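ping. complex inputs:
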Amino acid sequence: MKHVVVLGGGIIGLSTAYYLQQSGHRVTVIDKDDFLNNCSYGNAGYVCPSHFVPLASPGIVWKGFKWMFNSLSPFYVQPSLKTALIDWGLKFVRSATAENVERSAVPLRDIAILSKAEYESWTAIPGFEFGYEQKGLLEVFQTENAEEHARHLVEKAHRLGLTDTQLLTGQELQEMEPQTKIISRGAILFNCDAHLYPQKLMHGLIHLLKAGGVNLVPDQPVQKLEKSGKKITKVITSDQVFDADEVVIATGAWSREIAAMADTKISMMPGRGYSIMLENSGYKLNHPAVLVEGRVAITPMDGNKIRFGGTMEVVPTNTPPRYNRITGILNAVKRYYPEFDIAQPSADQIWYGFRPCSADGLPYIGRIKSCENVVVATGHSMLGLSLGAGTGKLVKELINGEKPSMDITPFAVDRFE
Ligand SMILES: Cc1cc2nc3c(=O)[nH]c(=O)nc-3n(C[C@H](O)[C@H](O)[C@H](O)COP(=O)(O)OP(=O)(O)OC[C@H]3O[C@@H](n4cnc5c(N)ncnc54)[C@H](O)[C@@H]3O)c2cc1C
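pong. complex structure:
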């Protein structure tokens, strides 16, 4: 039995702690905050093998450049001369190619399928209910260009073995949502996808971990990792010191700084997104949907709730929120669902969180060269919730020296070196 210290209590840190505790380790999870609000809470809740195309893909750079001058737009990179952004930006631009999309598809599909199977197995854990539903995901489009793109995506999904993927006409889509008028040309229906209620997932995991004897330590920002030889032996926070046999870096959008404490460089930037929740919605939707041109995610969850989320703002984590991004999200919703009349909410009803964005859209999962007892598990960008349970399982396998459930070389932490 080892003492494993997991840094960060988002979905990646908590699912890692779960698998480690299950395999008999003593586990401590340290967070700078209270575990009750991080990027893993306000997201759209998609568990989605369909998302095999990373953000770094052809066309995104030009689109991003155009959107930078529109405060309601879904994508924004805050210009800065900071080396971290320049390094990430160059790697992102170099990764935004058809070859990267091709290379990423199989690993993204495989880790999503692994993760989804793990979430499914969690639904059998007594008392752990997290709103998991297998209803598929719609990608709704309005333009001819998007329809053409959708055709290619469906063919690609079939080639990747996601054969239960269909192209729907606008009429067929409307039949799936008879209670709500939708303006569209059509949609892709990815039957392989599921969704869940992130709040319930996170609260349930915290409960499960505490019951299993995991030590959850809130309000302790990690400030230093003390090295002896090639190993980190102590984790030093604002007020405490933790001895460690193994350390897992799962600090989400802050992982670049923490990895640097272990003498490792990872190319990562925070990508802020926003969401709002209609708690007791009078509107009725049966299926989660991505509004393709609007870049908005909509999820009916946990009974009568509907969550609307979107925007990718690549900004430092101390940048004040721009609440008018929600206006952009709500405007897009109205273009597709004309009956949805949602007033701009007050600031306290708007959630935002920072996605840990790797430069090429693949996560970083693996051991590092500079310290032999450190595993990095971060950089999941727009897919951290979907890939959370699978990542936790893979980290447990790495720590135990077991054969990983899938090939993790595409996720190597040093792949840009
Ligand atoms: C609007 C929106 C919608 C999204 N929708 C989806 C979706 O539908 N499906 C999907 O798969 N993904 C989605 N995502 C992305 C997903 O939410 C993230 O990828 C995921 O939550 C990242 O999890 P994490 O554990 O890596 O990071 P986090 O959840 O951010 O957790 C990191 C933790 O590390 C802690 N930490 C940081 N620094 C320190 C330190 N120095 N010391 C101690 N602790 C520290 C933080 O306090 C935090 O609790 C969405 C994101 C957004 C913003």
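The radius of gyration is 21 Å.
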